[in-house]
Amino acid sequence: MKTSVKNKLDNLLAFNSSEEELAFKADLLAMQFLGWVDRKMEEKQMSKKELAEKIGTSAAFITQLFRGDRKPNWNILAKMSLALDLEFKVMTEASIQEKVKEELSEYHRRWVKTQKYLRLKNQVTDPKMVMAVEPASEDEYAMAG
User: Fold this and answer.
1) CATH, domain range 2-84
2) What does the longest C-alpha to C-alpha distance in the chain come to?
3) For the segment 93-117, what is each residue's pLDDT rounded down to a tens digit?
4) pTM
């Protein structure tokens, strides 16, 4: 019975054509960009009318964009980014995963250094004598006791 419900749900959510899938992906991209615009507008306490004035369009057009009735083109997004001091960076899922791996690796490296420091600090009778585990570069925190 569960399989039957799952199959029905999968069929209901499946795309009927490649055009339908393409339209969905385009809508999703537009909403992702506009989501960042909306967050920045909230941060700057800017209304849709103010944004429209800054980018030289109507408030009605901005409303249509945010409702999903229309999609922003690259020029509109560029104008929004300038008006809001917002820099868009486009990354693929693979590049995001690579960046996450790099950050985790760096975090682990620093954690290991901290563990070395803590072990050394616990080995001495006067913890004030432990000054550093190993030399730190300019962009790292020196571990001192």
Assistant:
1) 1.10.260.40
2) 73
3) 899 899 999 999 998 888 888 887 7
4) 0.60
